[in-house]
UniProtKB/TrEMBL annotation:
Keyword match Signal: yes
GO molecular function list: metalloendopeptidase activity
Organism: Bacteroides faecichinchillae
Protein name (Swiss-Prot/TrEMBL): Peptidase family M23
SUPFAM superfamilies: Duplicated hybrid motif
Organism classification: Bacteria, Pseudomonadati, Bacteroidota, Bacteroidia, Bacteroidales
M23ase beta-sheet core domain: residues covered: 76-170
Length: 211
């Protein structure tokens, strides 16, 4: 009897840990990482102009979706988890080329799209991918259906934004609350092996002066 109680206690704690730890390992996160050759060869900082991305067209990756787990909310959480319902349409955020579309470890069925300036967007846990690597895709194009493949406890989209292979908070590009594209410029500064990504302060000052 004692042994059974112990076994139940162990199984219970394992299931809690599994619920608690759906983030990717650093190996998994790094395997998605591909640098853009020469991106920082001229300057230590590069700028992403969101207004010009807006002109080319953009789409929120899961329209009407609600963030159920923010970037960095759990240790190693490299993106934002956005939820609507099972098998909902996942849309490409900007024009680009599909760099990867396949099942990969805890990411499950994952699509990686490369855009201008080395920006990449990643769409993971799909029940099905609708594009192939090498496909040219447009903003708003359906690229997958939401699911829970890989390490996921519910149907949702794990959405990442990356520059030069390094993930950063997608909330810097999209207002994840209302699904709109943010305004202005994002500054990406090389710092050792990493990159610091943030809203360009100069840009914000100009915006404030205009008010
Ligand atoms: Zn996630």
């Amino acid at each position: 009897m004692k042994n059974i109680t112990l076994l139940i206690a162990i199984l219970f704690s394992i299931s809690i840990q599994a619920q608690d730890k759906p983030s990717f390992s650093s190996m998994e996160v790094n395997h998605i990482r591909v640098v853009t050759p020469g991106l920082f060869s001229q300057n230590k900082s590069i700028y992403l102009h969101l207004d010009s991305l807006k002109e080319m067209g953009y789409a929120f990756p899961l329209p009407g979706g609600k963030v159920i787990s923010a970037y960095g909310a759990r240790k190693g959480h490299s993106g934002a988890d956005i939820k609507t319902c099972a098998k909902d349409t996942v849309r490409c955020a900007f024009d680009g080329v599909v760099r990867m579309s396949k099942p990969y470890s805890a990411y499950g069925n994952v699509v990686v799209v490369r855009h201008a300036n080395g920006l990449e967007t990643i769409y993971s846990h799909n029940s099905q991918n609708l594009v192939h690597s090498g496909d040219i895709v447009k903003a708003g194009q359906p690229i997958g259906l939401t699911g829970r493949t890989g390490r996921a406890t519910t149907e949702h989209l794990h959405f990442e934004t990356r520059i030069n292979g390094q993930h950063f908070n997608p909330n810097i590009i999209f207002n994840l609350k209302d699904g709109t594209l943010r305004k202005g410029t994002i500054k990406c500064t090389k710092n050792g092996n990493g990159i610091i990504v943030k809203q360009n302060q100069d840009n914000n000052r100009i915006a404030q002066n205009k008010k």
